[in-house]
């Protein structure tokens, strides 16, 4: 059997973890620069000519892009599982995905209307999900189980750093096109240290599964009855990510239209920074602590409860000071959740041969909320109670996710 399919036993070094984390930062910059600032600004520019409000237009574009993400992540994960290139299973897809993502961001930079904006964002989702599926699968490929909490912590830190860097680049670049260009350069450059410095594991041709479209498509279904822990872990991640997506989707508009903040774009950057500092204070610590005690579920449960409480506070106390407090609490809870839940997910993977595909199915729990959030949020904000109702629903969903982690039986 190829070493690519063996359960890893040797601990990875700091250089490997740092390079993989930087690659994750780069991919998240490509997503969060647009999501936090640039797409919202384009939606404001293009909405007057479409007959839609800026909220509805933004929800439509991000929702269509998220549908692309739903299919792209497990698809490219499955392709990387079957790749026998001399450069390894994952590295070719990391490079191709990041390069395609950079070009797609430049398409967005030149968008002059709704349709090109939608096409560009769909291409960003398609290409960056190819890179992300491969980067994520590198962890169960290379990291032993009792180091995955720590590595998951650094990957969680990378996600929030990507949000900060992406938001910062989008804000500081001085314009929409310049913001997209800055994110594109960072996205491509950030994956190169991992690919160039750390040779990937190769899959032997003899271990490559036989190809057929029917078996390939059938492989994306994982029976909840046969793999109940995998199913409950997926549901937990979906609900908590949906709660978080509802909080973030209209943050710029919330600050501008509900709190009447003097500089809402600067406000988004401040809240992102507060959230990031709190997350960075807990994300690695939570993962390392989970590794040392050999337990996952209590960390996921209580971090979910904390995030639900913070979101409920946002619904009940709508002021700028409360937004800062909520950002800090969400950062603390999300830091622990991101690191430990990632380790929990790798612990419930069914087979080594399909790590990329199975993690892609799990990552649907990240991207599906991006489809569901706009569909839920737009009518709630415009017709069904406004931001108070939106954040109340988000709190209930997050709490449900925290409770359901107890249904996982074979991981403590």
User: Residue-averaged pLDDT, rounded?
Assistant: 82
Helix/strand structural class:
mainly alpha
- Tell me, briefly, the overall form: globular
H/E topology pattern: HHHHHHHHHHHHHH
Task: Report strand %.
Answer: under 5%
Question: Helical element count?
Answer: 14
Main sheet makeup: none
* Terminal-residue CA separation: 30 Å
Q: How many β-strands, per DSSP?
A: 0
Integer-rounded radius of gyration = 20 Å
Molecular structure report:
The structure is a single chain. With 412 residues, this protein is an all-alpha fold. The protein contains 14 helices and no strands. The chain starts with 13 loop residues before the first helix and ends in an 8-residue tail after the last helix. The model has no long low-confidence stretch (mean pLDDT 82).
Helix and strand arrangement:
Blueprint: H1 14-46, H2 54-81, H3 91-109, H4 114-142, H5 148-172, H6 176-197, H7 213-218, H8 228-249, H9 251-258, H10 264-293, H11 297-316, H12 320-347, H13 355-383, H14 386-404
Quick structural overview:
77% of the residues lie in helices and 0% in strands. By secondary structure, it is mostly helical.
Defining key terms:
412 residues; mainly alpha; globular; 77% helix
